[in-house]
Amino acid sequence: MKATLKGAVVVALMATLGAGAALAQTCEQTEFSSKTGQTYLEAEQAAMVKKDYATAISKLNSLRAMELNCYEEGAVIKLSAYIKIENGDRRGAVEDLLSALQKGYIAPADAPQTYYNIAQIYLQEEDLAKALEYMTKWQQVGGKPDRTQKWQLAVLNQRADKFKEAVRWAEEVRREDGANFKQEVYDLLLYLYNQTGQKAKLAEVLEILLERNPNERKYWDAIAGNYFAENEERKAFEVQKAMYLIGLLKTDEELMRIVNFYNRFNAPYHAARILEKEMNAGRINKNLERLELLANLYQVAREHEKAIPVIKQAADAGGGGAMYERLGRSYADLQKWKEAEEALTKALSLGGVKDRGNAYVLIGQSRYERNDRSGAREAFKQAGNNAGRSWIDFMNSEEQTKRALVCFEVQASVLNVQNEAKICKSLAVLGPENVPESCKTVKERLSAAEAKFNATPECKGQTM
């Protein structure tokens, strides 16, 4: 870039050199004298044709020692500036050009180009402040920026952190380009709109850029960042979700962000599916913490069947008794009572169970559901808590009710036969031929029913 700028400055300066260059009205002379003319011509030839700058400088020094008119002095100053630019003495060239301007040796029509040349020299020196200062002076004396110069002004102001000015020039470049899309212009506007907080314009530019480059990560990041800055997390989530679906999220941190987003916005099943998929693919690190999270997500989503294999992995990965306790609870939720007891028993043996009493209650329940009532009672006693005692009370009540029902059935049988005997006795006065056949055995059946009542343990202490 510097070489290009230097060449442009030299070409522009050359256009103002020579005996035919117009001079300001303050200088009435229009030509060299015969004495100075030959020396100047030799200096110009040495500098511009032969590139013999040492000879050219020597000739110019000879001219400076002479008495020069304004026309001659102006030509000397401008040729000196040309030589200094070629030799890399940019500051010296600027001093010569400013001297020529101040003394009126540069015509008003050439002044804008001279100021522009000075700005380009300062730009080569990386002096952005001075470059912008003289770009401004150039415009003040009538300089009209073309598309290239507008773009230069946009970039210069951006580099100088003058973002509002940079926006103005970048927008002019965009308008001038019209339908001719230039990537660098939109990228600069993207940066500038973000710096100046112009969110609506930023969104419009991003939409255009994404339409043309849907797989360009930086544009998606800019949109998401914009939403984050505005505390619009739901919209940021939608952007992140789209980025995931098209394969732009690749690192552990990025993928975990989308998992957490799904969980935060009440979609635990989707969060679990992504987490499991990416762990299996090796893009998310599979460790105890992540396995616990995956199990949590499946359980919150009520996907207990899917949670169990994960909990097993977590238990095997060093989850200890706490993880086996959780596995037991999951089996209990699915009413897989045998597996629940095995997991909970292992949890208690490993240690680390936060509430051993509740673990024993679940073991007792698993035994109860499998009709191991004595084993259930033993587990509930070991629990030693209100839940365990409540279960024992419930079982006692259940057994008492069962005994009462057994005795009630026996008592009902006795009462039925007693009622039948009463009926038979009432019918006996009608004669044997009118008594039902069943009455012949009623006494034996009543004796048998009463004997059964007396022999039934559940009826012990009961009277008819």
TrEMBL record:
The keyword Signal applies. Keywords: Signal. Gene3D superfamilies: Tetratricopeptide repeat domain. The keyword Signal applies. InterPro entries: TPR-like_helical_dom_sf, TPR_rpt. Residues 1-24 form the signal peptide. It comes from the Bacteria. This is Tetratricopeptide repeat protein. It comes from Hyphomonas johnsonii MHS-2.
